[in-house]
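To fix ideas, we close by showing one paired sequence and structure record:
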Amino acid sequence: EADCAGWLRCASRGAVSHMERLRNDLEKLRLELRHERDKERTDTRYEIERTQAASRLDLNLFQGRMREEHAKTHERTTEAFARIDRDASAIRSKIEQEKGDLLRYSVGTMAALTGLGLTALRLLM
């Protein structure tokens, strides 16, 4: 019986010791898991921030290209309007010049016809 009681005490001390080791191992595993979880959260947060920064950069580059394209289009439009205004002014000037020439030739023709008419009238009389 004494051997049995000693063996039981030894076995129970071994079981307690084994349970303590298991608890310590479990606590270490919990701490390690917490550390890994925190590390994963940090890594995920870093990746999200990096992706957001890349997206912002892409968006800013796109906006810059759009501004440049808009400026070029505006410049081409302004040049086209200026060319149209120049052409319209040239056409107006040409019309005015042609109108003046037409009036001058018309007056000349009328004067010539009047002179011929008066000459014919004088010859007939």
